[in-house]
Amino acid sequence: MAGGYTFLVWGDTGDEVVLDIVGFIAACELPPVTCKKRFNSANNRTLVYSLSLAGPGDPLFKKALSAHRRIYKIFEESLAEGVLHPYVAHTVGDLDRVLAETRFITPTKHNPFMEGSIPDSYDPDGILADLVAGGKFTFTEDNTLSFSQIVQDSEEKLMKLEARPNTFRRGHLVEASLCFRTVVIGSKEVFLTRIDSVMLVSRVGAQLINDQLEQDRCSRVLLSASEVIIRKRRHVSDELEEGTQVKRVHEG
Questions:
Q1: Which of 2, 21, 139, 150 has the fewest CB atoms within 10 Å, measured from its CB?
Q2: Distance between CA atoms of residues 96 and 212, nearest Å
Q3: Which of 137, 130, 67, 138 lies closest to 96 in space, CA to CA?
Q4: Which pLDDT value is given to residue 109?
Q5: 21: which strand partners?
């Protein structure tokens, strides 16, 4: 049972720590939720969007992966020894990857978030709306992701535009913003990496990367039924450990 939630904030402002990571999509399950997608509403593990990123030979991806592990270490050192579930390293063949997830909807019983309207682009078949209507789930700010893309205008200048969530494909080069939490499940705490936003940078080379990642199968991390939204965010710098602290929130 989820009894408490911890997130990582900057000590000087209280803003949530966000890690920006650029990589190729190794696998993804993003909106919309349609009749073609199978999931079990009684199992939280199936009620998540997921994004798996890899960066073959990219030193910046390697640096971001190192920051991800350092963030886990900050949580681990803030808790009693042995309380936090061990760090889970994900791979695609011989390549390291980062896996992040965000829930479709939030169990009403454990909802501390502000409720919102389900975007049509997330739920064209009304599946999520039907689940929410049943009363066991609600759609909240925590279930909303930000999607964008970089395009060229007529003068070949780059600009950032909003993108539909079904734009993204395996092999696309993207920049994802990720945030981090732990949640109490039984006697342990589980480290979660949540998708906050995804920006399409380039489609070039997608087929090559797609072929390299053909055998990939996404792992999933159990998401909790209790989280707290943090609206203010600040991105990771090189002074991560010195400027951050963990903050515990208990269910009321």
A1: 150
A2: 13
A3: 67
A4: 76
A5: 176
